[in-house]
């Protein structure tokens, strides 16, 4: 079937769900999800156009569900070896901050970053905008985040630590966004959240088509294929399996232009659209659990924040002081968009030479494994590559990043001169 591109105003409600993956969105999306059980046949379903399937997703009003999700992410990063324990929360590294004060291994902000690589199994449940539960199963341990009204609990059974926060205003904001059909900020936890990151608007840079049917978690589904029309993107295509009855995305697969296994592959192995039991969202810390209050961590962070800068200080100095990215601009459009920004201080990457000691040897080894020295009209720099997102850091402190090829980054840097 030919790709569909919407141009009429009457279709805006549906087409706001279809868009090429933005540079930052791609990086954030790699925290998300993976292969469900293998498709078991191609069910005979009524034919739908891409427009009709997009509208079906847009109209889906499912708010109650539970199930099991398989998550696998492969960016092609080299192994960190012994560095992993020191830099990845929850893997045996220290949970103390730079001042020696302990944080919490159950803090969702850091703990869920572990989903950025490898394969994981999740249990998810939802009952409207104010009740959600996500559990990450890891051998004999389990990590859970429970949102119930204005209460948020996170519990790490491996360390017997819990994180708690209470913010009625934030809960209300989440409920409002859910009611409007907006994706909550944070780590995508289901195929639908990942699909929503991709399906927001269509345009001349994107090809959209319905490519047959499949079965996911025992349910009949349509397969929506979203592909870039532009050359130079590292994204080969995105396939979203959409439940034929409810319009809920059940599986999400992002394949790279270079071929090979999926970078992100996500899907339900079991799914149930019945109302979860109210007790699913109840939580009381087990006896002896170390509980960290979110407000305490926020206060600790503020105590280490820079003091107010003097009035009248130039904006450039304020940005340098705070490491801001106000100078960031976007080159190009759609799938080949490239973000350009300046590193604080206007310098390139420090090196780990024997005399400088700017970078620990382990970190330098990791950077060298990713880096590829390049030159051009812009001067020289290093391209750091994954299977999806690449970044060029020039020796004079500029950064060009996007889901594009190395050649595209060099071309953008040359054109910016």
Number of domains in the coordinates?
Answer: 2
What spatial form do the alpha-carbon principal axes imply? globular
User: Order of strands across the widest beta sheet?
Assistant: 7-8-9-10-11-1-2-3-4-5-6-12
What's the level 1 CATH class of the largest domain? Mainly Beta
> Quick one: biggest sheet?
12 strands, mixed
H/E order of the elements? HHHEHHEEEEEHHEEEEEEHHEEHEEEEH
The CATH homologous superfamily of the largest domain corresponds to Lipoprotein localisation LolA/LolB/LppX
If helices are DSSP runs of H or I spanning 4 or more residues, what is the number of helices? 11
Work out the strand percent. Answer: 25-35%
Structural class: alpha+beta
Note poorly predicted spans: 1-39, 79-101, 168-172, 177-184, 302-324
Helix content: 10-25%
Radius of gyration based on Cα positions: 23 Å
Q: What is the terminal separation in angstroms?
A: 43 Å
- Can you give the mean pLDDT? 74
| CATH fold-level label of the largest domain | outer membrane lipoprotein receptor (LolB), chain A
Please report the total strand number as a whole number: 18
Assigned CATH architecture of the largest domain = Clam
């Amino acid at each position: 079937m030919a790709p569909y591109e919407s141009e009429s105003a009457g279709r805006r409600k549906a087409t706001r769900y279809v868009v090429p993956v933005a540079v930052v969105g791609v990086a954030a999306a790699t925290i998300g999800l993976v292969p469900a059980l293998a498709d078991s046949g191609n069910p005979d379903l009524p034919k739908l156009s891409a427009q009709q399937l997009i509208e079906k997703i847009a109209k889906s009003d499912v708010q109650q569900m539970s199930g099991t999700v398989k998550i696998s992410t492969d960016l092609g990063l080299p192994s960190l070896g012994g560095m992993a324990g020191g830099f990845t929360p929850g893997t045996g590294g220290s949970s103390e901050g730079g001042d020696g004060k302990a944080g919490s291994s159950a803090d969702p902000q850091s703990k869920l970053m572990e989903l950025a690589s490898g394969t994981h199994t999740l249990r998810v449940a939802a009952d409207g905008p104010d009740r959600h539960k996500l559990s990450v199963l890891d051998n004999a341990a389990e990590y859970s985040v429970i949102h119930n009204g204005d209460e948020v609990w996170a519990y790490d059974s491996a360390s017997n630590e819990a994180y708690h926060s209470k913010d009625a205003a934030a809960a209300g904001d989440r409920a409002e966004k859910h009611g409007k059909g907006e994706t909550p900020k944070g780590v995508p936890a289901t195929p639908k959240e990942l699909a929503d990151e991709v399906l927001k608007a269509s345009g001349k840079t994107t090809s959209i088509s319905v490519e047959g049917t499949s079965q996911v978690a025992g349910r009949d589904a349509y397969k929506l294929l979203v592909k870039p029309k532009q050359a130079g993107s590292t994204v080969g295509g995105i396939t979203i399996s959409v439940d034929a009855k409810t319009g809920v995305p059940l599986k999400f697969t992002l394949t790279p232009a270079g071929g090979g296994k999926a970078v992100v592959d996500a899907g339900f192995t079991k799914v149930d659209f019945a109302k979860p039991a109210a007790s699913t969202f109840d939580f009381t810390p087990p006896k002896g659990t170390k509980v960290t209050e979110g407000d305490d961590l926020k206060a600790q962070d503020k105590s280490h924040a820079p003091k107010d800068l003097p009035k009248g200080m130039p904006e450039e100095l304020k940005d340098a002081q705070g490491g801001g990215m106000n100078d960031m601009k976007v080159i190009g459009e759609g799938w080949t968009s490239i973000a350009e920004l300046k590193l604080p201080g206007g310098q390139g990457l420090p090196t780990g030479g024997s005399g400088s000691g700017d970078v620990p040897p382990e970190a330098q080894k990791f950077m060298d494994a990713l880096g590829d020295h390049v030159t051009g009209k812009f001067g020289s720099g290093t391209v750091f590559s994954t299977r999806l997102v690449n970044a060029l850091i020039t020796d004079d402190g500029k950064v060009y990043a996007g889901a594009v090829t190395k050649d595209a980054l060099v071309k953008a840097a040359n054109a910016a001169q």
